[in-house]
Amino acid sequence: MDFQPYIPGLSPAEAGPLSRFIPPLEQGVISAWLPPHAATSTWLLDPFGFSPRLVLEAARAGYRVLVTVNNPVTRFLLEMSANPPSESDFKAALAELETSKKGDERLGAHLQSLYLTTCEKCGREINAESFLWRKGEDAPYARVYTCPHCEDSGERVATQQDIDRAKKIAATDGLHRSRAFERVVKLDDEDRVYAEEAITYYLPRPLYVLTTIINRLDSLNLTPERRRALNALILVACDAGNTLWDHPTQRPRPKQLNVPGQFREHNLWSQLERGLSLWAETASGVVCEAWPNKLPGSGGICIYEGRLKDLAHEVKKEIPIAAVVGSVPRPNQAFWTLSALWAGWLWGREAVEPYKLALRRRRYDWAWNATALNAAFAHLFDLLPLGTPFFGLLPEPEPSFLTSALTAASAAGFDLQSLALRTEHDPIQLLWARGEHLKREANEANMDDVREAIHSHLVERGEPASYLHAHAAGLITLAESHALKQQDQEFDEAMRATQSLIQRALAEDARFVHYSTGESVDTGLWGLQENVTLSEAKGLYHSEKDSSVAKLPQNDINDSLSDRVEVAIVTFLQKNPNSIYLEIEDDLYPRFPGLLTPPKAMIYSVLLSYAERDGAAWKLRPEDAASARRNELNTITAMIEIVGTRLGYVTGKRDKNYLWEENNSKGRVTPPLRYAFYFLASALIGRAIAETPYPPEQTLIVIPGGRAALAAYKAQRDPALAARMKNYRLVKYRLLRALVEVPVLTRETFEEQIASDPLEKSKSQMIMF
Ligand SMILES: [Zn+2]
Which residues contact residue 305 at a Cβ distance below 8 angstroms, ignoring those fewer than 6 apart? Predict the structure, then answer.
């Protein structure tokens, strides 16, 4: 496979509305991928429509993007981000709602009063930001506020008044609840029970606030643009109002409708106001039309509300699709069910009708996902010309999700051409091409192929890999040999077989080592057994009659990925001082494509060790310029010679080591080695250990102090390296420099000083992510 480099992007400055349900993608990725693959103003197709930002970015880059969307909420998000109302429309719409009357009161004041609480410090009545609940209880146990009068702020125990207020609203709950589901489905609808169930994820107070606002909508005097703006604000409140906000936050991106043990009830009026800033973020508009209206050559978005199946035939006749792009969908029962509910509240029952199936609470498993994806891929196969590229982003990757996507695509006749994986926290970047035959021969899955694919990835990597990486290496080889699914297999059966094949390939092969706290194969890291342990190899030194360097047996371990990344970044900065982070990634990723893509934490660890930042530009520290490091090395070896001689050793350089040996005048055959120094300007500890032939207990690896945190970072992410490092002592340059100044240095105090300079001291500077 011709692995493509990972395309770097930037995290959006603002998460945007409903961000916990929208795929977490980086910006700048799709606009970087497109130009080499499709000419501007050609048509693109997003068959999933899960990421409004992705579509918008492609349209802004000058492409005509046809999007199929069957979720009315996603459709609304897409239209809003393509063409947002002005800030003044948002403000005017909210003001109109706020000042409308509820009896003698303004509606805004009435709804805010539901959240009144008493400041614990100054005793005044203020608005709570939220109330905290325990699952199953009928009143909140705490409130969260910031007092505008005395600035008392934080979580406080609920008062009797808070409890009474919550119970009072609950007393009239039945009426609001039935109103709420009648906007979604008819009373006699067979799906009524599903709507009722979905509404149980709303407490009485937020449900009262939402239904009160929604029932008011039609009597407000709003322009269509302001009505759209108000709908957008209400949508934010609809999401803020359910019980899927765990406290403290552990699952920030819910997938299932489950009430957490403790959760947060937001002040919904405040959330409406917060919506103003959320939506105002979305920048200038692009042309947005509904199918079958056409788009100008300068680009835009054409929305088809419905299923790809129904569109495929028309597109094939009328529109040549140059490329397919999209965020590969993963099941989200919570978002899909709530979307049906919100669509009913905002736009009425007709809007829910085509999407009503989503209300039925069901278990969406990965086999279900593969079946649905396969149907989409099969329709795409029909409408696309041979060879059409499909760039897919797979967010929040996990092994089953990747298996599902690759199996679905392969079974529908799409050939996997590249897979770039950074970490399990970044979207996987996939490239397929529409293949030649839909009904092609499926091959038997071959365990040896999978084993060799994983083995060669680990050899290439030179360090352990996450299970996801090993799994991906296995999947790629199965995809290439069309062995992910046999024709007579169902998706669940095929996916189980694939998973078990990959896991057995790892577990039943003595060449692989599992680094994990758990038993399960699909956790932790997988690495390679080193075929001759280094300590055995070092033992050769003692048996040699002369002290010539013992040859280490060649084992099949490369320089580790992190060592190679370190070298590449330093080389790049030597040639390109004052580069910004994205330029560093742009240079790095093509050198380490596909499964080798280095994580950001690794890049930053190297940068923080070697470089300094001036604004956004990175350059090597003056002491890390190559010439400065050479001078320092000369100074330090001279010092080592002085100290060694003072302590009565015979000193000398041998290959890459500097040795202190006992005086050999008594005619012993083997010079008794006391210390072997190995000097590094880098943090290439793995290479140092492999190269130095002397016993670990007598070897001192000497590194600049600025490398200590990087060495610790490498040891922390690579348990194989950590195990090798345990036998060695790392010493910093500055300690040796200080020892020269000690007036009465003995062999004992030298040993004590060396022992007192542990690497762990630097750990506080480490960045962990
Ligand atoms: Zn106060």
Answer: 68, 69, 70, 72, 75, 290, 291, 354
Q: How far is the CA of 696 from the centre of ligand 1 (A)?
A: 64
User: Confidence band (pLDDT; 50, 70, 90) for 282?
Assistant: low
Distance (angstroms) between ligand 1 centre and the Cα of 103 equals 30
Give 99 Cα–ligand 1 centroid separation in angstroms. Answer: 27
Ligand 1 centroid distance, CA of 270 (Å): 19
Cα 389 from Cα 371, distance rounded (Å): 21
Q: How far is CA 317 from the centre of its chain?
A: 39
The three-class DSSP label of residue 654 is strand
Per residue, the 3-state secondary structure of 561-583, as one string, reads HHHHHHHHHHHHHHHCCCEEHHH
Query: Residue 153 and residue 606: Cα distance in Å, rounded?
Result: 40
Q: Which residues of 465-490 are buried (b: 16+ CB within 10 A; e: fewer)?
A: bbbbbbbbbbbbbbbbbbbbbeeebe
Widest distance between CA atoms in the chain: 110
**pTM: predicted TM-score of the whole model, two decimal places:** 0.92
CA of 121 to the centre of ligand 1 (A): 5
Which is it for the CA torsion 360, 366, 368, 372, positive or negative?
positive
Which of 387-391, 538-542, 765-769 bottoms out in mean pLDDT, i.e. has the lowest? 765-769
Q: Which residues contact 609 (CB under 8 A, 6 or more apart)?
A: 683, 706, 707, 709, 710
